[in-house]
Amino acid sequence: MKFNKLLYLLLLICLNLNGQEKETISTEKKDSYVTGSIFPTIDPFAPRFRVGYVQHLAPNWKLGLEIGYGYEGLSQFFSYQTNTGREYRLWEVRPEIHYILNPKHRTLQYFSLELFYISQNHVFENGNYTLENNEILYFDRADFSRRKYGLHLKYGVFVNTGKHFGFNFYGGLGFRIANKQYSNVLNPTTNSDLFQESPIVAPYQREGVRIGFTPTLGVKLYYKI
């Protein structure tokens, strides 16, 4: 008799847990997220804020879009050792498709393909840059622009820390094409005797198109809806 009662109690517990699991799975399959970067200004060369949205499509698929924006105030505050010039502006767009490995798990692991496009502009004074023929050109003032686009293959996880909040950890590798150009150059010269201390940092000091690999690593805060 006692054994039958114990068996009946265990059966009730199993049915209850199974019901809770099904409810959790059903809810998590439909999760969408509003995201924000934890360290929006960690890049000293191109600080920016990022916000995004990840939409549930199907049990194994989610589609995301992230937008970034940088302005001169961020540049002056976070780049005091690596001056990014005046009139700094940046905007970017990053669509991303996620493949969820196991939508039944509470912590969702995924592989994703992210495309990105970045538009960036500065005004530099008393600087220099390297031409495509490797000649160094010095100037009093110049407009700088960068257009960068490419893709990343990423692995990541959505880790729930509560009913609505969690973290998205990710890392990956991809390739990029970057086109860096100077225009409206004032008093260009190859005479280094006229050169003063340059505010321009290494990533900006070579003009032209460059193709190469690019890593990505980060963490975002998300709000589950």
Task: Furnish the topology, listing elements before pairings.
Blueprint: H1 2-29, E1 33-37, E2 49-58, E3 61-71, H2 72-78, E4 86-100, E5 108-130, E6 136-160, E7 165-186, E8 208-224
Largest sheet: 8 strands, antiparallel, barrel
**Rg result:** 25 Å
Kindly report the average pLDDT value: 82
Task: Give the % helix.
Answer: 10-25%
What distance separates the N and C termini?
48 Å
Unreliable sequence segments: 1-28
Strand-and-helix sequence, N→C? HEEEHEEEEE
Instruction: Give the strand tally.
Output: 8
Order of strands, widest sheet? 1-2-3-4-5-6-7-8
> How would you sum up the global shape?
elongated
Number of helices: 2
User: What fraction of residues sit in β-strands?
Assistant: over 45%
Would you write up a description of this structure?
- By secondary structure, the protein is an alpha+beta fold.
- The protein has two helices and eight strands, in the order H-E-E-E-H-E-E-E-E-E.
- It has helices spanning 2-29, 72-78, and strands at residues 33-37, 49-58, 61-71, 86-100, 108-130, 136-160, 165-186, 208-224.
- An eight-stranded antiparallel barrel has the order 1-2-3-4-5-6-7-8.
- The radius of gyration is 25 Å and the shape is elongated.
- It starts with a helix and ends with a strand.
- The relative contact order is 0.17.
- Mean pLDDT is 82; it is low at 1-28.
